[in-house]
Amino acid sequence: MLNAQEIHRLAMKEVGDHLSASGFEFLAVNSQPKKDPQFVCLKGKKLHFIVVRGCLYPENPKNFDAQLMEQVKDHGIKYKATTYYAGVGLANADDYDLPLTQNDPYAVNFDGLQIMD
């Protein structure tokens, strides 16, 4: 079964690919879980903070720690940054109820960035 670091690594890859495809320029990437924000980016000369969290099915990737996000948002305000939450759900692609290991194909549940306003 994937450990927390492996889940976080897969979530970071999904979000990083999404940010690249959306035209974000990376200023800083923090790959450590719970070192927030994970991505500091520029887009349109505006600063963006992105907090990434990965989870395994059946956990809902849209659920976030409101207190943590408020702290990151407050930090972002000091830098005139927009703060986002990026929740990524992962599951075994063959059967969501099976454990997910490094050798399994996986399904991704990621609906994009949730703006924290």
Structure write-up:
This protein is of the alpha+beta class and 117 residues long. The chain has a single domain, classed as Trna Endonuclease, Chain: A, domain 1, CATH 3.40.1350.10. 26% of the residues lie in helices and 33% in strands. It is built from two helices and six strands. The chain has helices at 4-21, 66-78, and strands spanning 25-29, 39-43, 46-56, 81-92, 106-109, 114-115. Helix 2 links the parallel strand 3 (46-56) and strand 4 (81-92). The model has no long low-confidence stretch (mean pLDDT 97).
SSE layout:
Elements: H1 4-21, E1 25-29, E2 39-43, E3 46-56, H2 66-78, E4 81-92, E5 106-109, E6 114-115
What's a concise summary of this model?
The protein has 117 residues and is α+β, with helices and mostly antiparallel strands. The chain is built from two helices and six strands.
Described by the principal axes of the CA atoms, the overall outline is: elongated
Cα radius of gyration in angstroms: 14 Å
Instruction: Report low-confidence residues grouped into runs of 5 or more.
Output: none
Work out the strand percent. Answer: 25-35%
Keywords:
117 residues, elongated, Trna Endonuclease, Chain: A, domain 1, alpha+beta, single chain
